[in-house]
């Protein structure tokens, strides 16, 4: 008998409501839930991949242990006991341990409370995560300006008049650091009510294609545009923070630092005409609700932290922070801001390169050196949890080589990937429909205040475990093997109920469960100054680190002549998801997606024809891909998606390996970072491109 089940798609930040129809354990259909208050029926093609994940023959169903090159099934308790004994021995001999927590952790409410238990049992000084190849610059700016790293301003797209998207492509990504399901319809509604969308991107993206205006920008040059916009507002007398004025600290100091620059010079540096910049500033400053929003393209950049500071200053200068139709703060059912520490930077430093910790983590770019560099404090045991950093982190080859030297590696993952292929043990979670879901980290950044709990669709398969159980049981086994007190494990539903009750709304899990389509808690509301976590409830507009970065590193960059040659940027496709989901039959269909987009004016002099195999070379390495000639990328820029390169030895992803592509992170470089946040500068890598035939001839 088929049954239908309501839940949330956990695959991306949009958190769409889905209706899953099953017969026994087979998935008959996955449809959008039109009664979900947030997603209103929207889904993207990835939702149906959940069915492929459930049935994928490559998905591991039992823990496995690698002996030589072969994988052997192993019982859970044996695996936990063996890992625990090895950790105890490694630590007794002075070896360090570390964890990399990958992107899916952000989509799994139940792991978060268990991770500190594992970290403590391991005594792991070094914690790494996908945050430092992603959004940590947003969080550092929020810590400095608003007093808490999780105080994310959310674009109130449904009520704005003008949305400016810089370095984001929500029509492919479905929105990020911004839970905004069905963004296409929301953009169409904005335009239908006479509002506008402006996109700033080195590529004419899917989002740019529906925007009223799109401006190409030289990769990495965004601070020049953002400062020029601020100066143009100032010049036109349009700086009007309104009611925010009473909350601003350091406002004059910020302006004094900005006014050292000149619009003409800045315009030349970013490649956008000064007249276009002045016009955009006039639109932003016209008094109607407007939002400047920046994402991966400005976050994973050498000036990532500077970019986000300038974006926040723009929203403040136009009076659009904390304003209906501007960039607003949420009133979430679970209040991360009220229930976690504000965050930190520089309390301790990494061993090899002396990177400051940021929010308790070291930059992911430092993993390879921390594993490979001998000496006291060298990482000898390494745990990955839902991550595939060999494909996701710059200089994947360096990490690949480093992982091979570990004394112990454990991956909590359901696939044998480019990363987990190095593990001694792979501990696979149960299928996705056997898990429950709550958007712990994503509801607080949604365009409406909402809460939704999804129970498991299927009962657990006997002998399977959810991620949180694996992490918790590992923590207990490892603590026990070292004679530490056993950690107290709180079931995730209990933690969730407690977090809900402790938030100002005071809901219970039962209250949320009473609304299986989701509980709409209303539109975003102005929250300042109460929401600020700075000691004096002001907005710190001139953090010393940013003023210094502007005066030194940015000023140097601006005075240096622009480099010749091509630079590499990334892109996403609506049918891919980072380094995984490539093994879904449904998603893998269609033309090859791992191509190098290149402008016709850059292809011709290099004698590259559309579809030719080309060699791309950077300071880190070389990859071979097919060229896709298109004027949708600006001259001087080439674009390649990340998350491909499944040909590496040992990988077991049959469908993905039929379209292996190449890993763009074999080209990105470990030393290219934003030094304030430690975030990788994934965009703007200098590269050479040549057809395979001449590259071969040259060698
Ligand atoms: N060049 C370049 N590199 C990038 C980016 C870019 O734009 N350009 N983007 C960066 C960004 S924003 C991110 S977030 C990172 C992501 O990079 P990672 O943190 O490495 O995450 P994923 O690539 O999503 O890999 C997820 C892994 O977890 C496994 N997995 C999936 N779901 C689950 C689950 O529920 N439980 C468990 N235990 N395992 C699971 C998958 O099989 C896969 O191996 O990549 C970054 N890398
Ligand atoms: N389908 C799909 N959806 C996803 C993912 C996925 O892999 N596939 N990944 C998820 C994850 S982990 C994340 S973090 C989000 C990311 O969400 P988005 O930030 O929307 O990601 P992208 O689509 O990579 O958009 C980044 C844009 O920045 C542009 N860009 C590159 N360099 C620069 C620059 O120097 N300046 C400017 N202004 N723009 C630049 C690129 O051309 C690109 O269009 O997407 C999430 N959603
Ligand atoms: S946009 Fe697609 S992948 Fe993201 S939550 Fe919605 S259905 Fe899932
Ligand atoms: Mo991400």
From TrEMBL:
Pfam families: Molybdop_Fe4S4 (PF04879), Molybdopterin (PF00384), Molydop_binding (PF01568). Keywords: Iron, Iron-sulfur, Metal-binding, Molybdenum, Oxidoreductase. GO terms for molecular function: iron-sulfur cluster binding; metal ion binding; molybdopterin cofactor binding; oxidoreductase activity. CDD domains: MopB_CT_1. The keyword Transcription does not apply. Its cofactor is Mo-bis(molybdopterin guanine dinucleotide). InterPro entries: Asp_de-COase-like_dom_sf, MoPterin_dinucl-bd_dom, Mopterin_OxRdtase, Mopterin_OxRdtase_4Fe-4S_dom, Mopterin_OxRdtase_prok_CS, Prok_Mopterin_Oxidored. Transmembrane segments: none annotated. SMART domains: Molybdop_Fe4S4. Residues 1-58 form the 4Fe-4S Mo/W bis-MGD-type domain. The keyword Glycoprotein does not apply. Belongs to the prokaryotic molybdopterin-containing oxidoreductase family. This is Molybdopterin-dependent oxidoreductase.
């Amino acid at each position: 008998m088929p049954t239908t089940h309501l839940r949330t798609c956990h695959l991306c930040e949009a958190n769409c409501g889905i209706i899953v129809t099953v017969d026994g354990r087979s998935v008959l259909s996955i449809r959008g839930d039109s009664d979900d208050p947030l997603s209103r029926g929207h889904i993207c093609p990835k939702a149906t991949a959940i069915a492929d994940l459930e049935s994928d023959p490559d998905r591991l169903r039992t823990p496995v242990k690698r002996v030589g090159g072969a994988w052997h099934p192993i019982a859970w308790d044996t695996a936990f006991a063996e890992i625990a004994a090895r950790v105890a021995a490694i630590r007794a001999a002075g070896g360090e341990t570390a964890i990399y927590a990958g992107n899916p952790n952000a989509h799994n409410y139940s792991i978060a409370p268990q991770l500190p238990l594992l970290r403590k049992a391991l005594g792991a000084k070094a914690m790494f995560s996908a945050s430092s190849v992603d959004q940590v610059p947003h969080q550092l700016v929020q810590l400095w300006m608003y007093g808490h790293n999780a105080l994310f301003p959310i674009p109130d797209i449904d009520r704005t008049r003008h949305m400016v998207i810089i370095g984001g492509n929500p029509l492919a990504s479905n929105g990020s650091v911004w839970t905004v399901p069905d963004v296409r319809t929301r953009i169409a509604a904005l335009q239908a009510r006479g509002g506008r969308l402006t996109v700033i991107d080195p590529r004419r993206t899917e989002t740019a294609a529906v925007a009223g205006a799109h401006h190409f920008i030289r990769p990495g040059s965004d601070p020049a545009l953002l400062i020029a916009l601020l100066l143009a507002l100032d010049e036109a007398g349009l700086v009007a923070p309104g009611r925010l004025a009473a909350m601003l600290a350091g406002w004059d100091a910020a302006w004094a630092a900005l006014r050292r620059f000149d619009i003409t010079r800045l315009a030349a540096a970013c490649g956008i005409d000064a007249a276009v910049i002045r016009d955009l500033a006039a639109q932003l400053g016209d008094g109607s609700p407007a939002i400047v929003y920046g994402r991966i393209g400005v976050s994973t950049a050498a000036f990532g932290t500077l970019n986000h500071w300038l974006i926040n200053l723009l929203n403040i200068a136009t009076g659009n922070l904390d304003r209906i139709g501007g960039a607003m703060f949420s009133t979430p059912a679970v209040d991360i801001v009220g229930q976690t520490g504000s965050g930190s930077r520089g309390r301790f430093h990494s061993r090899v390169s002396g990177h400051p910790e940021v929010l308790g983590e070291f930059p992911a770019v430092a993993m390879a050196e921390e594993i490979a560099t001998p000496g006291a404090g060298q990482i000898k045991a390494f745990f990955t949890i839902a991550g595939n950093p060999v494909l996701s982190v710059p200089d994947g080859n360096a990490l690949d080589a480093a992982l091979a030297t570990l004394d112990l590696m454990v991956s909590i993952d359901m696939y044998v990937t480019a990363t987990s292929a190095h593990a001694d043990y792979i501990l696979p979670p149960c299928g996705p429909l056997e898990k429950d879901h709550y958007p712990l980290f994503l509801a607080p950044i949604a365009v409406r205040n909402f809460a939704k709990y999804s129970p498991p669709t299927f009962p657990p398969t006997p002998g399977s475990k959810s991620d949180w159980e694996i992490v918790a049981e590992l923590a207990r086994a490892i603590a026990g093997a070292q004679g530490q007190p056993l950690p107290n494990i709180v079931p995730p539903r209990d933690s969730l109920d407690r977090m809900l009750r402790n938030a100002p709304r005071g809901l219970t899990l039962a209250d949320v469960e009473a609304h299986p389509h989701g509980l709409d808690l209303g539109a975003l509301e102005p929250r300042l100054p109460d929401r600020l976590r700075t000691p004096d409830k002001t907005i710190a507009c001139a953090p010393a680190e940013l003023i210094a970065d502007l005066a030194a590193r940015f000023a140097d960059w601006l005075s240096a002549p622009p480099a010749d040659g091509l630079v590499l940027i990334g892109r996403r496709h609506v049918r891919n998801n980072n380094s995984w989901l490539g093994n879904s039959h449904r998603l893998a269909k269609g033309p090859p997606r791992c191509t190098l987009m290149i402008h016709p004016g850059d292809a011709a002099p290099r004698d590259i024809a559309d579809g030719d195999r080309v060699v791309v070379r950077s300071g880190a390495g070389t990859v071979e891909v097919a060229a896709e000639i298109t004027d949708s990328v600006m001259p001087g820029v080439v674009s390649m998606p990340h998350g491909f390169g499944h040909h590496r030895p040992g990988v077991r992803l049959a469908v993905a390996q039929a379209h292996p592509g190449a890993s763009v992170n074999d080209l990105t470089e470990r030393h290219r970072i934003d030094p304030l946040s430690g975030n990788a500068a994934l965009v703007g890598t200098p590269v050479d491109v040549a057809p395979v035939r001449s590259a071969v001839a040259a060698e």
